[in-house]
Amino acid sequence: MSGDSQVKAELFIENPAELPSVAQTLKEKGYDHVISLSAVDYPKSNEIHLVVHVSSYTKKDIEPKIFEIRVKLNRDNPRVPSLVKIWPSAEFQEREAYEMFGIVFENHPDLRNILLDPEEFSGVHPLRKDYIVQVEDIMLKLKEEVKSGGNK
Amino acid sequence: MEAISDIGGGISARKVDDKTMILFFGPQHPSSGHMRIILKLDGDVIIESDPDIGYVHRTMEKLSETKEWIKNSVLFERLAILDAGNVTQAYIIALEKLLGIEPPERALYLRTILSEINRISSHLYGMGIFAIMLGSSTGYMWFFGDREIMVQLAERITGSRLTHTYHIPGGVRRDVSKSFFEELEKGLNYIEKRLRHYEIMFVNNPVVRSRIENVGILSRERAIDLGVTGPNARASGIDFDVRVEEPYGAYSFVDFEVPVYKEGDALARTFQRMDEIRQSISILRQLSKSIPEGPILNEKYLKLFTPAMKEVLEKDKRIKFPAIFTSLKPPSGKAYGRVEEGRGEIFFYLESNGEPKPYRVRVVTPSFRNSILLKYLPVGYRLADLPAIYGSIDYFPPEADR
């Protein structure tokens, strides 16, 4: 019950090209599926970190239970080799990271939007920190309309 | 490609060549919420399936960056309102790791009681949807009607039927009275009796059984590769349950089995859910016998209570929030929380930079992880099998789209 206050294992990869070989080693160790694949945006240092959490169904005694991999990407052109060949469970989550952060996964079999409308969100990546959600203040608009003599 | 033509019943299709046709299944789905599957059919055999999800995407991860930590628990429980207790629990567990606080034992028991009540009601909901997809309206009415008992029991604990907002950092929001456990036992006895009826009337009904047996077979290797989670994984022979692997709440104080099936078809997934309800009943009985007396919130927070708050806690057995809760500032760092929800593992990853609002919240729901099945599982089966496959994986679009 008393969990560790921090995620124990963390592997930080500076060069995205190293990711497939690291992933392959982890898979051979027993980490057989991806729980989460996403990213965190750090605009101040112009970086995006790809964050992958993998775990194991087959090896019960594996430690740590959830292994975290972080990959440093260039925010201007985030590209990283796809993990789908090693972990097929990454397929949909890579599509999500692609639309939400604009990360391009090289050699992904089917890289396109999954949750967002591809027309409305083409070239726009909502989970980046500089994406500001447009607030539609209906009540405010109504007030202004009343002031200017109501709706035409 | 030719224009889309309406072929009746709101279903549109387009012809690719003389043999192949593309069929749009959804998004106005009659039973489970909005999503569609774009199917390529050869005759009535599915040769390609492309789930088009996101119709109920509510930008939860982005939205959570604009709200205070405590307010986010109200946001996230809307992922799956019928399983809200389990969802919030995962978020609160991660938040507690950041804050370095632990709930007292009675709170752990109460959390687990709510978790298991939620699990039963989530399974009954899933089977009800499954039944109506197969055209068994009796099943639908029975499962939904009986689920009401579990919903009302959850209401007795938390004060609300679906969006409970029961978990708070360091404890729970309300205590229960002694009479609650009598009602719980009554409800469990009823569900236990009804499980036999479901088997006779629904699962072993020849019409239902012939539609789900040997349909949508998911092998163990494939389930591991695709990272399938929850009852769907266990029905394919994966012996994995977060409640056992990384125990939280009061699961380390009770004895229970994790049912596993080898077959991996829609029938096994149905039996899997029924067996899990049996285990939940047993867990709930053990918990209600052994629940200890004591505080429901960590002492550290109780010390902050004003005399008026103490009086409310004494009299009504409920927590009035100390003001500090609205401006919680967890120290910089990261933490994860995982919980076995009714549909499988829910995973939260939180990153704090010491501000009153999270820097980043990542949430992966079981339905999102299982949505990959909609791409790979229907291929090779007939169009008429699709509702059986779709229904049997208990896919819940609002939870998947987040």
Helix-strand blueprint:
The complex is a heterodimer of chains A (152) and B (402).
Chain A: E1 10-13, H1 19-29, E2 33-42, E3 47-55, E4 66-74, E5 79-81, H2 91-101, E6 104-106, H3 138-147
Chain B: E1 5-6, E2 12-15, E3 20-25, E4 36-42, E5 45-52, H1 60-64, H2 69-76, H3 84-99, H4 105-133, H5 137-158, E6 167-168, E7 171-172, H6 178-203, H7 206-212, H8 220-226, H9 231-234, H10 242-245, H11 266-290, H12 299-302, H13 307-316, E8 333-341, E9 344-352, E10 360-364, H14 366-370, H15 373-376, H16 386-392, H17 397-401
Antiparallel strand pairs in B: 1-2, 2-3, 3-4, 4-5, 6-7, 8-9, 9-10
Helix pairs in contact in B: 2-3, 3-4, 4-5, 4-11, 4-16, 5-6, 6-11, 11-16
Short structural description:
The complex is a heterodimer of chains A (152) and B (402). Chain A is an alpha/beta fold.
Describe the structure.
The complex is a heterodimer of chains A (152) and B (402). Chain A is an alpha/beta fold and 152 residues long. Chain A has a single domain (10-147), classed as NADH:ubiquinone oxidoreductase Nqo5 subunit (Beta Polymerase, domain 2, 2-Layer Sandwich), CATH 3.30.460. Chain A is built from 3 helices and 6 strands. Chain A has helices at residues 19-29, 91-101, 138-147, and strands at 10-13, 33-42, 47-55, 66-74, 79-81, 104-106. In chain A, strands 1-4-3-2 form a 4-stranded mixed sheet, covered by helices on one side. In chain A, strand 5 (79-81), helix 2 and strand 6 form a beta-alpha-beta unit. Chain A is elongated. Chain A starts with 9 loop residues before the first strand and ends in a 5-residue tail after the last helix. By secondary structure, chain B is of the alpha+beta class. Chain B folds into 2 domains: 5-52, no CATH class; 102-325 and 383-401, Cytochrome-c3 Hydrogenase, chain B (Orthogonal Bundle). Chain B is 47% helix and 13% strand. The two termini of chain B are 33 Å apart.
